[in-house]
Write a structure and sequence with these properties.
Number of helices: 24
Structural class: alpha/beta
Radius of gyration: 30 Å
Distance between the termini: 57 Å
Number of domains: 6
CATH class of the largest domain: Alpha Beta
CATH superfamily of the largest domain: P-loop containing nucleotide triphosphate hydrolases
Shape: globular
Oligomer: single chain
Bound molecules: adenosine-5'-diphosphate, zinc ion
CATH architecture of the largest domain: 3-Layer(aba) Sandwich
Largest sheet: 7 strands, parallel
């Protein structure tokens, strides 16, 4: 009985988005498994491409084998995607309409997608005999050698027994990371004898012998020896020449947190609300119930402490857990708290890691060395078995939705995985998304509430709203109301700290001619260029076009060109003039571009090396600094005017979150919100920290306008270099939709996008609002399928089945 494999090939097109059948070569029978990647011949020219095996089938001896192509070679020793992840990819394909191959690729660390060289290494418990016979006495072999010598099938078997491993060679610098250390060559008796023979003033050598005695034969790294015992490299060298010790170089897995020291923390005694939440969740863990909990708790109410204790319980049950955070670089303090509590059992996955670092973390998880994964959106694909809980912190954040194919939402996949593993999901937030809160209302999710701040002394800050249309400002500096300036002054005087936020959403600085009103546009897009002081240039945020700042008006030649809008840099300059002695830290895309810059800035601020932290919305998240007693929001409402039905919700969330940075210690906090819309409900209710009232009000607004969570939405976007082509196509699609959808569905459009022309392409959209359309996804897929010819001729068509952004 011959076996065949079903393979999804790496050709991301509609026509090839289905499994192809390949014969498995004899020597690889029983070795090729679902979830492995293989090289297969494809197409007329039998081009060699990669693919993922999704299933193995047997074929009858009577079947004709000659028509079947054969798998060329395996690319993995063991499956890189589990049965679970293979099934989840099918769910992703169905709900996001992305190609299957794209879903698979998304689940793996980047290093495994590109064609990096790889080698095979033996693991420490591999018997010498195997090293001798298979590896010619060495500890490693290149992948090519294994393949050409025909040893790959044997090695695949060894990998199944966990005796060998695959290592991707990312680049020369990153290849292997080693630490230098040393180890005694002498017995303790011999060491004692040496010590007796040393001159009393050879202090360093005495110390070295003492340390060697202490180590009792085990190895210590040079760095540790230096830090713990003050042993210099020079004396280690001496020790080597005198034959006391052996210098060793050992390969280490890169640990991105290696340079951090984490002091172990312990569980706090939970307050009664926390205890209730903890008990409900851990009950579901033990009973293996795939329930979804909404943990709605005000900022500082101790949600993270609940997560930590739930995870401790999950580990006690011998299970594993995933914790998603919006963006690791913005939430270093949260990650730190998991590291402090669980040490090396935590793997951290996020975009700022190098490819090599990410692969190492992934391997740690895959080998079962890490049982808790903390990471951003894509950590939902962590190859953990035996999940006991999935936690999504700040569940309302839009970063959980991927804005490119496959457009998945991590929350949906979390619920899918939890169902697979029969474990609970915890969605935590001070300001849950309306969709989530509405589901809790309907008891689809189980609601848990934390209504008070966790530490006795800390209280929610007092908030004031300043109406900027009539506020008194200071001379020419329009950014600050006098009131806010006085409050800053007072904090500086009291040696307390201030956080100032400049909201960049829906807001940018531009250049305008005072004489004729000309604003410099992008030549490729229907939008004005944004001023960038750091590079002294004008940039288009849509297509990346860049040009120098004009010194004359390109239209009327006047030289009265002026800058409008305020960037963080300009605010920083104003602050320096107003408070010459204040130490100011600026945190925005320009000052945080370098790896680790975020963390360094926050650390500086935490150690009170600065008085004022000025930043964009990136400072709103997760900061917990007890000495911050004033938070100022310079422009609360710039995002309110965006043509997106979620504008109020986002504004409310942001204001609540940034307000939560004040008064976390025992000193009372204050918040000042400057706005041009002082009466807007999102601003008024944020002032009162009243999420529940906001939820009720916003629900009535959504109900009135037939928006989520009362309706589901789907969005079709098409673009083409010629406007009439795309407009005509969208009207065709509209006709088809009208025929297909029920009378309940509402179709908006087609309309040009808010910025119609981007990069010389014209963009149109259709938005569908619906309650229940069981065949909608299939129909949307058929639209993509039926337009393949136009797509090959320059039409771009994309579908977002639950869009989060409408601008
Ligand atoms: P959230 O995640 O809701 O913002 P945190 O878990 O960060 O809240 O808690 C806020 C502060 O209160 C932290 O400094 C935390 O260590 C502390 N804390 C949380 N729970 C307790 C508790 N039960 N007893 C004492 N301190 C607590
Ligand atoms: Zn002009
Ligand atoms: Zn542009």
């Amino acid at each position: 009985m011959r076996k065949v494999a079903e393979v999804i090939v790496d050709v991301p097109t509609m026509q090839t988005d289905l499994p192809y059948t390949y014969l498995i070569p004899d020597e690889l029978e029983d070795k090729i498994l679902p979830g492995m990647r293989v090289i297969v011949p494809f197409g007329k020219g039998n081009r060699k491409i990669q693919g993922f095996v999704t299933a193995i089938n047997e074929i009858l001896p009577t079947e004709d084998l000659t028509a079947l192509k054969q798998i060329e070679a395996p690319m993995d020793l063991v499956p890189v995607l589990s049965k679970e992840l293979l099934e989840m990819a099918e769910e992703m394909r169905r709900t996001t309409l992305a190609f299957k191959i794209t879903c698979f690729q998304t689940m793996l660390p980047n290093v495994m997608k590109a064609s990096y060289d790889k080698k095979l290494v033996v693991r420490s418990d591999c018997p010498q005999e195997i090293m001798d016979t298979v590896f010619d006495g060495l500890a490693e072999m290149t992948w090519e050698d294994a393949q050409t010598s025909g040893k790959l099938p044997t090695i695949m078997k060894l990998r199944q027994e966990n005796l060998v491993d695959v290592v991707y060679l990312v680049n020369k610098k990153n290849r292997v990371k080693t630490i230098k250390g040393f180890q005694s060559l002498l017995t303790s008796q011999e060491l004692m004898a040496v010590k007796d023979s040393l001159k009393p003033n050879a202090k360093q050598q005495h110390l070295l012998i003492d340390v060697l005695l202490l180590l009792d034969g085990s190895m210590i790294s040079n760095k540790e020896a230096q830090e713990l015992y003050d042993i210099s490299t020079a004396v280690i060298k001496t020790g080597q020449t005198k034959g006391w010790l052996n210098i060793i170089e050992q390969e280490v897995k890169r640990d991105p947190y290696a340079n951090h020291t984490f002091k172990q923390t312990f569980a706090a005694t939970l307050n009664s609300e926390q205890q209730l939440a903890y008990e409900a969740i851990t009950h579901a863990v033990r009973e293996q119930k795939s329930e979804t909990f909404l943990l709605e708790g005000i900022t500082g109410s101790g949600k993270t402490e609940v997560y930590l204790q739930v995870i401790a319980d999950v580990l006690k049950e011998n299970k594993t857990g995933i914790v998603l955070v919006p963006e690791i670089s913005l939430t270093p303090q949260t990650v730190r708290r998991f590291k402090e509590r669980f040490g090396s059992e935590v793997a951290v996955l996020h975009s700022a890691l190098s490819v090599g670092e990410k692969y190492d973390e992934w391997r740690k998880i895959e080998h079962g060395d890490a049982k808790v994964v903390v990471g951003a959106r894509s950590a939902i694909f962590a190859p953990l078995d035996n999940l006991g809980v999935i936690i999504i912190d700040e569940e309302h954040e839009s970063t959980y939705k991927q804005e490119e194919n496959p457009r998945y939402h991590a929350r949906d996949l979390a619920i899918w995985r939890a169902n697979y593993h029969q474990c609970p999901v915890v969605l935590g937030s001070a300001t849950p998304s309306l969709e989530t809160r509405a589901r809790a209302q309907k008891k689809v999710y189980h609601m848990l509430q934390l209504t008070e701040r966790a530490t006795q002394a800390s209280r929610l800050p007092k908030t004031e709203i300043i109406n900027m249309t009539e506020a008194e400002t200071f001379g020419k500096m329009q950014t600050f109301s006098r009131h806010l300036l006085e409050k800053i002054q007072l904090r500086l005087h009291k040696k307390e700290q201030v956080v100032l936020m400049l909201n960049r959403r829906g807001y940018s600085s531009f250049v305008m001619c005072r004489d004729c009103g000309f604003v410099v546009p992008c030549p490729n897009c229907d939008i004005s260029l944004t001023l960038h002081m750091d590079s002294h240039s004008m940039k288009c945020h849509y297509c990346g076009h860049e040009e120098p700042i004009p010194n004359k008006c390109p239209d009327c030649q006047s030289n009265k060109i002026r800058y409008y809008g305020t960037g963080t840099q300009k605010v920083e300059e104003e602050l320096t003039q107003l408070f010459p002695k204040a130490r100011i830290l600026r945190m925005d895309v320009d000052t945080t571009r370098k790896k680790g810059a975020h963390e360094r800035l926050l650390e500086q601020f935490g150690q009170h090396e600065a008085d004022i932290l000025l930043g964009t919305q990136m400072i709103a998240k997760g900061l917990d600094f007890p000495n911050v007693t004033l938070v100022g929001v310079l422009n609360a409402d710039t995002a309110l005017n965006l043509p997106d039905f979620r504008a109020s919700e986002r504004t409310f969330q942001l204001l609540t979150q940034v307000s939560g940075r004040a008064g976390r210690g025992d000193k009372a906090g204050e918040v000042v919100i400057q706005t041009f819309n002082p009466d807007h409900y999102a601003i008024q209710l944020a002032k009162r920290h009243d999420y529940e009232q906001f939820f009720r009000y916003e629900m009535s607004v959504r109900h009135e306008a037939n928006y989520p969570p009362y309706y589901f939405t789907a969005q079709i976007i098409a673009s083409h270099p010629e406007e009439n082509v795309v407009a005509k196509k969208m009207y065709d699609i509209l006709l088809g939709l009208k025929e297909q959808l029920s009378a309940q569905a509402i179709i908006l459009g087609p309309t040009p996008k808010a910025v119609m022309r981007v990069n010389n392409r014209y963009f149109y959209q259709i938005v569908i609002k619906y309650k229940a359309e069981p065949h909608l996804y299939e129909y949307l897929r058929s639209i993509l399928e039926n337009n393949q010819t136009e797509i090959s001729k320059g039409l771009k068509l994309s579908v977002d089945t639950e869009p989060l952004n409408f601008v």
